[in-house]
Design brief:
This protein is mostly helical. It has one domain. The chain is about 70% helix and about 0% strand. The radius of gyration is 18 Å and the shape is globular.
């Protein structure tokens, strides 16, 4: 699968996406002393995103299959999603946390059940997006219901959650149909078109998450 990100002149949007990944990392490191636990978990996830892309590029440069990295990373993404939302101390609902736990348990089980070694693991990537959409919507519902945030526009998780919701909704059908557009059978130009679309949504996520990490300095005084 050398088509994944190598060489950069053929996939400039991939290069931009990798550079943009450094933005939330650098902002997070700059504010590492003051950011809360859930934001630190997000920072670790971005670091893993960056390492994943570097490793996949190295494998692609020597004509080795790098697809397994993305398939495995779907489980890592599920795990971190659950940790980040579960460890948000500003939401007190026990039902909210039960939804997160049971959702990730079911998602991991289904992911393992339908895991594919030979090609893009369609079900796994679709499950990540369904789970992500579920918990981001539940998160927004809890924030609005509990009314504990003074100014939602300066609340870090509002921006981070908005970025995730945009990313998951924007890429859901791409991965649902990935056996046609992102598999080994897809034509190179079709593959690049849809993969670039996925990366554009990822770039928006990185930008919104960066805003959220920057605003995290206000979280301490933004709770009733």
């Amino acid at each position: 699968m050398s088509r994944f990100f190598s060489p950069y002149q053929d996939y400039p949007i991939a290069f931009i996406a990798e550079l943009i990944t450094l933005l939330p990392i650098l902002i997070g490191l700059f504010r590492i002393v003051s950011i809360k636990y859930e934001i630190r978990l997000l920072l670790v996830l971005f670091i893993l995103f960056f390492l994943r892309d570097i490793l996949s590029n190295l494998l692609a440069s020597v004509k080795e299959n790098n697809l397994f990295i993305y398939n495995i990373f779907s489980f890592i993404e599920l795990f971190f999603l659950a940790l980040i939302f579960y460890n948000n101390p500003r939401i007190h609902s026990s039902r909210y946390r039960k939804t997160i736990v049971w959702g990730v348990v079911i998602s991991l089980f289904l992911g393992l059940l339908f895991y594919s070694k030979s090609d893009f693991s369609i079900i796994d990537f679709t499950i990540v997006r369904l789970y992500g959409i579920l918990i981001t919507i539940v998160f927004f519902e809890r924030v609005l219901s509990e009314v504990r945030i003074k100014n939602i526009l300066t609340y870090s998780m509002f921006w981070i959650n908005s970025g995730w919701l945009l990313y998951f909704c924007g890429t859901f059908f791409i991965f649902l149909l990935s056996d046609k557009v992102l598999s080994r059978k897809a034509q190179p130009e079709i593959f690049q078109q849809y993969w670039d679309t996925n990366l554009i949504f990822y770039i928006f996520f990185c930008l919104l998450a960066s805003i959220g990490i920057w605003f995290s300095k206000y979280d301490q005084d933004n709770t009733l």
